Amino acid sequence: TFRLQVRLARAAGDSAPAARAVALPATDRTAAPPPIRYSGRVLVAEDDPVNQAVMAAFLTDFGLEVELVGDGEAALASLARSRCDLVLMDCMMPRLDGYAATAEVRRRERSGPSAPGRTPVVGVTASALAGDRERCLAAGMDDYLSKPFRREDLRALVERWLPLRPASAPVVAEGESAPSGIGRAGLDGAAPALDGRTIEKL
């Protein structure tokens, strides 16, 4: 919720400010294209609650099922209970870091009684030093994502590892509505008050 107070000068001869309702032309109410959705279950191993919230919001908006854990040991316990389609593994976590947890994931895949297949693991780290990507790959990770990242960076990574949801699947949840496009076009031909592209990124 936000409040805005604006001081306006009264026009000469007006006894009271006039209320004016402006309707957007029909061309300004075009629905935005349906969002791209993916299929799969993602395990996010991240010890920072703010980073957890941001990643979960992005991933669920992509149509994915998300499980959050706070360290490498919890990630291993989750993978032992049920299989997932992608793991986002923070490299620096308490108790068991992402490098050691990934190495254990690969050891279990090699030595398990039944071959479950290789689970894609993406290293997520705030460090952007030379050699960090190589260290992730050497630990058995399949990809690398540097923090801070943009929504589009995460979407591109998901696209590399997870399939698109079939076009016949619903893309708008019950109760949701498509954006009206108010931020894209101004009233009465004026310049837009809000930048729709920036809003979409947020």
Question: Can you characterise this structure?
Answer:
The chain has 202 residues and is of the alpha/beta class. Helix content is 30%, strand content 12%. It has helices at residues 49-61, 72-81, 98-111, 132-138, 151-161, 196-201, and strands at 41-45, 65-69, 86-90, 121-125, 143-146. The chain has a 5-stranded parallel β-sheet, with helices on both faces. Helix 4 (132-138) links the parallel strand 4 (121-125) and strand 5. Helix 2 runs parallel beside helix 3 (98-111). Mean pLDDT is 79; it is low at 171-189.
List the helices and strands and how they pair.
Elements: E1 41-45, H1 49-61, E2 65-69, H2 72-81, E3 86-90, H3 98-111, E4 121-125, H4 132-138, E5 143-146, H5 151-161, H6 196-201
Parallel strand pairs: 1-2, 1-3, 3-4, 4-5
Radius of gyration: 24 Å
The biggest sheet amounts to: 5 strands, parallel
Form type: elongated
How far apart are the first and last residues' alpha carbons, in Å? 17 Å
Strand order of the largest sheet: 2-1-3-4-5
Q: What is the strand tally?
A: 5
Structural class: alpha/beta
The proportion of residues forming helix, as a percent range, comes to 25-40%
Structure summary:
With 202 residues, the protein is of the alpha/beta class.
Features:
30% helix, elongated, alpha/beta, 5 strands, 202 residues, 12% strand, 6 helices
